[in-house]
Amino acid sequence: MSDVKEYHQTRYAPPPGACDMLLIRHGRTMPARPGESFETIDGHGNPHLHPEGEEQALKVGERLKTQPISAIYVTTLTRTHQTAAPLAGHLGLEPIVEGDLREIFLGDWDAGLYRIKAAEKDPAYLKAIEEHEYGHIPGAETTEIFHARVRAGLLRIAAAHPDELVAVVVHGGVIGAAMSIASHSRPFAFRGAENGSISRLVIKDEVMSIRGYNDIGHLD
Length: 220
Prior knowledge:
By secondary structure, the protein is α/β, with parallel strands linked by helices.
């Protein structure tokens, strides 16, 4: 038998004291319709899950129910609570609200109008996308303000859960912001995470590492 030492590749493990964070985008929501507005919470549109989104929530719960998740976080908006509910039921956990991870405030275009303006290729929408700046939308948060509060929310959760795995059910804009912050990329570089997708950040102190983005294998 050979006595030559062998050095194999190693599997990644979060560094000691880090928080392993699963960012889950809420399920698909009800559609916007011309002349109608979603109900709002603190000015933010609050559409509930579409039946397809409810099915996505069930699949997220099935995917993650065996993981050693120690806490589940949601935002102030109902769609995150609905998406978290199946997983919370499996794990026997009560979701915790982290308000700073609510979706970008879209000002005059909140409550559903943003979707219509985007579909119509409104000039303000096109300028916002081109320049990575939400502030071009009338009354909306600026990208800088939005990213600052998302970063604060992520760091607050991470500080509360060293050496733990947590699930955080949030919004597409929030996932895009989190990935941009972690990668130091342009603000909209990670726009488009799918409903029901799972992304992963590892946060140690104030250092964020991306370990996964837009995993939708459980939705097939």
